[in-house]
Input
Amino acid sequence: MISKQTTKCFIFGALKSLTIKYFIMKNILVTGSVGQIGSELTLELRKRYGNENVVAGIRKTQPSGELKESGPYVVVDATDIKNVSEVVKEYKIDTIYHLAAILSAVAENNPQAGWNVGVNALYNVLEVAREFNCSVFFPSSIGAFGPSTPLDNTPQDTIQRPTTMYGVTKVTGELLCDYYFKRFGVDTRGVRYPGIISNVTLPGGGTTDYAVEIYYEAIKNKKFVCPLAKGTFLDMMYMPDSIRAAIDLMEADPSKLKHRNAFNITAMSFDPEIVADEIKKHIPDFVMEYDVEPVKQAIAETWPNKMDDSAAREEWGWKPKFDLEAMTIDMLKAIGDRYKGNSW
Ligand code: AKB
Output
């Protein structure tokens, strides 16, 4: 026999969880959703907030597989403010993860496109966010630093004089996000990502891409020709940590945030030799040779060896789960399984 008291408790509990769900419900737009980070972030956001509530923003590349099947997608060109505004209005968007980007090496070859996508598109997103009261996540990068920045234990607040167009757009983006928060109260938040390593979507045209390619080549050919020189240390992070970082920061209690944008975050720092040695523990006959690409090498030399991410740890509890050893095991297994199954 169910007592009146139990029934009351049950109804109250259900109402309470419905109310909580209603208030935390979000309508999210991810620009650049078919890119390296966007493709995995969109799926994770759909798991957390419901498939229908996360719109994948695409440009020319169509989504495929789970990204296409699991929720809505829409063409959104962030360099066209009218288009951004129409999409935000139509889907009643309240949160934008703005991941549309051109990576460092590509931006260096085409600085005009680098500026247009890096700055003009972000400006459009911020203007639309101001009008429609949206929160905005903006990924900055280790590329926001330059040769005059302290390269070891790079502080949260330090000299930023990057010498690449990518870096110029990232510093501009950090400042724009701070400005829109202070001047208009737009809830902007962001991190400075290191090189991101993943086994789902390949990055395109970044300086840190070698740290992804090395795993694929190790499985396919047991050999890798590295475009960066021995001794080039850079911060890196495994994809699951970078996705968690974005969502945790957007969920963080704003009263705890002294900074809002451009948090240094890192999980590991290595040079090509160190990652090759880690792979050799699993594939002993793996060999690496060097054929240094001057543009990438010149960019990498101006970026930090290792950032200090204590502000992110203190203000919103940032802590990576994967180190080089754990990431290598996971990468080789995921890529190896796919290679055996011939599914790439
Ligand atoms: C790049 O190499 O351009 C990116 C980055 C570190 O921002 N991966």
